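Researcher: Checking consistency across runs. Here is Large ribosomal subunit protein uL1 again:
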Amino acid sequence: MAKIAKKVAKAREGIDRNKLYGLEDAVKMVKARASAKFDETVEIAMNLGVDPRHADQMVRGVVNLPNGTGKTVRVAVFARGAKADEAKAAGADIVGAEDLLEVIQGGKIDFDRCIATPDMMPLVGRLGKVLGPRNLMPNPKVGTVTMDVKGAVGAAKGGAVEYRVEKAGIIHAGIGKVSFSEEALLQNIKAFTDAVVKSKPAGAKGTYVKKVAVSSTMGPGVHVEPGTAL
């Protein structure tokens, strides 16, 4: 534990927790302080001026990051017949109907994104209590309930990131890897924040983007001047 604490303290050196940094400087600091033995994910957290308990203040959507996420995404598809064949051809990792339902009900969730054709939703709806809390429930608003199975699988595999505001008004997502260039990370962050800003709900009042921070999986958070990230 002492070794970990020492590592954390070292990573925090030079970061003023009360200061807001420009986005470029923040990304440089996150990259420089990532010291894990694996390729850490770079994450963004945004505090929004919304209360998601109200329907007109919910923020959710999907954004295609220009440089991908650097993560291998496993995709499950609920489909039958020709659409199931289309899903397999597009590179889906798991394809099925009742058989896939049984696997998931049995507690095995071996995927990161779930897509369904509209006709499968009565079946998938029975998994709401399992998939909902994991943010895996297919939803037409983010393009995961669709007849364009090929396009949805391609987007999921190519760097599409879903986002949804949590109870405290916070959105967070992985937007790349530490091994990415600063330019690639900056492009991904701008694409992500742009999508969140465009998703501003009708019920949002006052300042919409209150705080922004970036970090790596094992590294400290760096607070960002919001205006430089938008």
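Researcher: Does this match what you'd expect to see?
Model: One thing to look at in this run: The longest strand covers residues 41-48.
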